[in-house]
Amino acid sequence: MLLPSDRGGFRRMFAEAWRKRRARLPADPLETQIGDVVGDHPEYQPLLEAGETALESEWAPEDGQANPFMHMGLHLSIREQVATDRPAGIAAQYRRLAGILGQHEAEHRMMDVLGEALWRAQRNNQPPDEVSYLEAIKGIPGRRNF
């Protein structure tokens, strides 16, 4: 999967994929995946429909705000990992969790672990540790949080 490296291009790609989905226009495979993720997040759809100003917004974690583009991008990352089974064994772990929790909740649980792995890699100025990451995924309990 190839995504734009600049923030604006990345965000516009989400808006364009969602526009195509709503208009039932042809889309390439990545746009289809993005449309699926946006479709799973009705809370973000108005943002993508609001135009360029909304795409330039900032979300501050210290204010309790989650960046919707980071959230949806992590969904795409998990789906790419599962599709390629990298790290090896992650597809089986995803199937285990999705069978118990459902696809969306399984992705959310895995995204928490992925976010932590990426944060550690960045902090240590190293590539993500795939072995530790997969072990943490294996440790995700297979029960719903109600």
Sum this structure up briefly.
With 146 residues, the chain is an all-alpha fold. It is 66% helix and 0% strand.
Keywords:
single chain, 146 residues, mainly alpha, 8 helices, 0% strand
Task: Walk me through this protein's architecture.
The structure is a single chain. This protein is mostly helical. The chain is 66% helix and 0% strand. It has eight helices and no strands. α5 packs across α7, α6 crosses α7 and α7 runs antiparallel to α8. The longest helix has 22 residues. It is globular.
Our estimate of the beta-strand percent is: under 5%
Q: Helix-strand pattern, N to C?
A: HHHHHHHH
User: Which stretches are poorly predicted, pLDDT < 50 over at least 5 residues?
Assistant: none
Structural class: mainly alpha
What would the average pLDDT be, to the nearest integer? 91
- What is the helix tally? 8
What is the global morphology? globular
The percent range for helix content is 55-70%
Radius of gyration: 16 Å
Secondary structure: number of strands: 0
